[in-house]
Amino acid sequence: MTLLLAILAPFLGAVLIAWNRRRGRLRFAVKAGIATLAALACLGPDIPGPFVGETLVWRLPWVPSLGLDLALRLDGLGLLFALMILGIGLLVILYARYYLSPQDDMGRFYASLLFFMGAMLGVVLAENVLLLLLFWELTSLSSFLLISFWQGRSDARTGARMALTVTGAGGLALLGGLLLLGHIAGSFELSVILTSGDAIRAHPWYLPTLVLILLGAFTKSAQFPFHFWLPNAMAAPTPVSAYLHSATMVKAGVFLLARLFPALSGTPEWSWLVGGAGLVTLLVGAFIALFQHDLKGLLAYSTISHLGLITLLFGIGTPLAAVAGVFHIINHATFKASLFMAAGIIDHETGTRDMRRINGLWRWMPYTGALAMVAAAAMAGVPLFNGFLSKEMFFAETVGAASLTRHGWALPAAVTLAGVFAVAYSLRFIHDVFFNGDPIDLPKTPHEPPHWMKVPVEVLVAVCLLVGVFPALTVEPILAVAAQGVLQGPVPPHDLALWHGFSPALWMSVIALIGGVLLYTGRKPLFALSSTWGGRWSARAVYDVALATLFALARWVTRALDSGSLRRMLALFTSFALVLGYGGFLVVPAGGAGGGGLTGPLRLFPAEPGDLAVALAGTLILLAAAFAAVVLHRRRLVAVILLGAVGLLVALAFVTLSAPDLALTQLSVEVVTVILLLLALYFMPQQDPVEPVRRWGWLRRARDLTLAGAAGLGVGGLAWGVLTRPFESMGPYFIANSVPKGGGANVVNVILVDFRGFDTLGEITVLALAALGVSAMLSGLHLYGPRYDAAGRPWEPDPHPAIMALLTRLLLPLALTVAVFVLLRGHNLPGGGFIAGLITAVALIMQYLANGVAWTRARLPGDLNPVIAAGLLLAAGTGLASVALGYPFLSSTFGHWHLPVLGDLELASAMAFDLGVYLVVVGATLVILVGLGLVCTLDDGEDRR
Amino acid sequence: MEALISVVIGVLTALGVWLVLRERTFPVVLGLTVLSYAVNLFLFAMGRLALGQPPVIANGARGYADPLPQALVLTAIVIGFAMTAFVIVLALKARAELRDDRVDAEADGPGEPGEEQP
Predict the structure, then answer these.
(1) pLDDT per residue as tens digits for the range A86-110
(2) B33: distance to nearest CA of chain A, Å?
(3) In whole angstroms, what is the distance from residue A761 CA to residue A756 CA?
């Protein structure tokens, strides 16, 4: 539980800071610091556990069906990382307070930083690998926010986007890898995965799993050839770089290697892939770093190089190499964070990061210079500093690995070369900046930074020194416990001491130091060389080309499919549906379910000859009307009327086929649809204009005809095929339970308001949205209605015929009574909210039609949106009320009441829900129709009503 | 009976598809309406056909038609109306702003001179 709180603390802090963003700089820093300390405090009680060999696992079932638990674990490895994340995070928070200027949005900065911190903690403390992945993606997202903090700068945006693209793509690969891993191990829990290493390595899917997981780790840890995002991420504010590129973001990749070390390592594939990538990255990073003129660029490439070193150590795969890897993780975090902070101080106080201009700062900033020297010496691997110890272990491991293969000598030689470069670039960082003549054209006169800005650097540098001089006293306990966490077993004996005798590793260190100094002295011709051919080729260029190609491809596909022609899209869409549909006919197995062929074995529905004759007549009329509507569709008014006839016949079909509710609904919807179409038609040409003859017009008509015919045949055939086959329905369940469980005899209504009430809630929401959409589109729309129809006859000589006006007014109370009646009886007899709502809407619309808008609006509430809202709230509130009473959402209850006159009335809570449906239907229908009626202006500008 | 309903569904589908593929907005809206008749009938028929057996619990009923497709189709009818309304208002808006009631952007000019509004 405390583990969860530790992860939540930074997230909560982020929310709190984002909540009130306009406050002083100090207050944000203090809040962020408090959140970090709170996380540390939550972690505190659990810290002793790993030291006595315990692995703390805490879990809360989350989506058990997916094997996804909210499961956290704390072992040595997680503890080490959590302490680094929080400890260095605290220092960065302090540092950033002085680094950022008052113009920067401090609230956003600290909120993003804490967000990132929480995500990192989640990665290192996750027990479930899917949870780990979730936090992994969160680190990608939050680092995007941090890198792009100065949103106004295009390099910040580019760098952030690049980091997100590369790490996001890696995250996708990692998802695949972890899913495979979980499948192989039979669980997504690390406790299981870490103990089933043998099964995983022997599995045929081992290689794809390994490759996918490594893709995730390598992109995150900026391993070659994915390293290019890291230098571009240097556009971030320096505190961000100090945090992301020392202890956290890029370390997530090596953390993953360490985490899954027991499960995946120990195979030739692992050694070649991990070791190979590490070695190449180590060399490439060290080489390029020397030629960077940007302070942070140098540090970025050196970070890449050191990450390669750690990866190589894990790739070597021996337990001792893993210990060395963990040790170097700690050391690199300390010296690199302090170097970034020092670079930030220099940038802050001189206004530039270009090492060709920054020279001789020792005169102005001796204290900062001394701090930077210690950190740089640690980076170079000079004795007495922590980097030396882990580097010597590293050298020793490569010598050990070299003895195993024939051309093994190449490995120590290569890493010694990388060591030479490391010494050279470390030397450059110090000599070029603090000595080497006078500064050239600095934007500011440099001076020492404020005291508190140096404190974080002091702390880190002190750690570098203490670990370097007294390793056994300082770092040994946490190193041992973390290594135990990596290996999930006993830690091999290792001797953290300054002096190991004249071992090969010592000679390699000596060669690296001497070679590095020599290389730096001869740097001038090398720099000249690099400025002529450097930068010609880079992984960045490959990335840019790949991205541009991807975009071009996407645009091409979009253009190929979407030419901006609705007809073409619809034709394509229909064709595709036809291919799928007819494909379905083809694969019906002969003699399979229900027999082969189109016609199934089911006995046909027995019909009396009389019924059949009526049905046949109705069908013929329906088809004739529909055909006529289509043939005459150019005469739009006729088409609308014919379509109304089709709708009425469909309603009749529903009556005949035992669906009274549907018939009622269809009938009332038909009325409002016809009114709607007529209203709309008023603003449109009354006839389809004659189209100009096009060259390929006949072809298009032939295509449409074919599509329409094929669609009709297909759907009709499908209906026939289904209707002649037996089936099982859920229907009997509803019929059996409608009265006992829903308290209503009208099963359709009970389904709507009770069994499937949630669906209905969604459907009335759609209705409300459609009405809102319509009223949004109508607002500000001015339509001009013509005074004369196409034949030159004036529209409506008498706008409001007296008889009709009188009749509708008389009918209104009757219609409303009917509506209430239909609403009330809906639970037991055909009716209900939908139908009652439509009847009410029709009755009210009639008033508008017969008496005019002005007359009606004076007597009815004008704004109907509140009615819709009230309906939705009532329906949702009914559902919530059952939650409040401890039942699932939208449970209903019912009871019988005896009312005078009305008789025995059954009141179900579902009735309130139905009332909500009713209100939404009334509101939505009226909003649409009245709204359409109101937009009209006559063509001479005179208001017609 | 099954044959009749299948024919009706098939013909309505064909007519609807034909109308939807027309060039002006109004026939397209009509086509959508016709298509929704077809789709509603199809969904309804999936519960099989029954004469005189409404799904209202009563003593002495011979049997009950399948209520579930009916419930689905009932809301579909109402939503179909909302959709028709939305599309037709969209068509009006497009006509008001583009001075044209064709559905395609590829149309090679504004509407006919005769139907231009002042």
Answers:
(1) 999 999 999 998 898 888 888 889 9
(2) 9
(3) 9
